[in-house]
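Hello, quick one for you while I still have it in my head. I'm working through a protein record and want to make sense of it properly. Would you mind checking whether the tokens look sensible for this chain? I owe you a coffee for this, so here goes:
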Amino acid sequence: MSYRTLDVGAILETLRRLERRIDERFPRSGLLSVCHELVSLAEDVQQRANAIAAPNVALRATVYVIISAGVVGLSIIAFAIKFRIGSAELLSVFQGVDAAVNIVVLLGAALFFLISLETRLKRNHSLRDLHTFRSIAHVIDMHQLTKDPSSILSIGSATASSPERAMSSFEITRYLDYCTEMLSLTSKLAALYAQNLPDPVVIDAVNEIESLTTNLSQKIWQKITLVGTSLGGATSSASRAK
């Protein structure tokens, strides 16, 4: 087992365990449905990342064919130039050199286009998949918005539009903690693309997702801290009352 690379099997197993934990604690919840979707994505992510990183055989074969054709063409021109030098046809020699230069320029342009085309195709496929992880991170964040720690000690009455807040402080803490775990695992799934395809643009996109999930987790941990502080204050007040 390597400890220098991410193991998609271990990530998937962690996600499945988290899915079971959410199901046992919050069955039929929206967060459970999001976790189902994340597990589904994780089951395909390694295959997709490997497929993107794999060489494009058809494209590379085309490159080799163009290189071979260029070498053959240059060889023919070189042979013709040598023959004309022996015949002292100076004008024909210059024409042959000009043709050889044109072939080299066109060949280089074609090779650059084809080689960069493979990189662009891989990059576009990776960015499209990474956009899915960025979206699911925001979906996870939406599910924690109504889990407000202030509602635990609130004595005011709810309005007609107030969200249902039937969770205890312990349940809110567990729910928020599950959200942070899902965000962390989302960023790890995204990191598999940079691990398989170390392209600068892909790495920047993965780092952006990492920053996004970290910032969202920090907001959630602020809520968890508030819940703990509220519980600590309530416990102290109860102790003094006794």
In short: The chain has one domain: 8-152+165-231. Residues 8-152+165-231 form one domain. The CA atoms of residues 120 and 170 lie 48 Å apart.
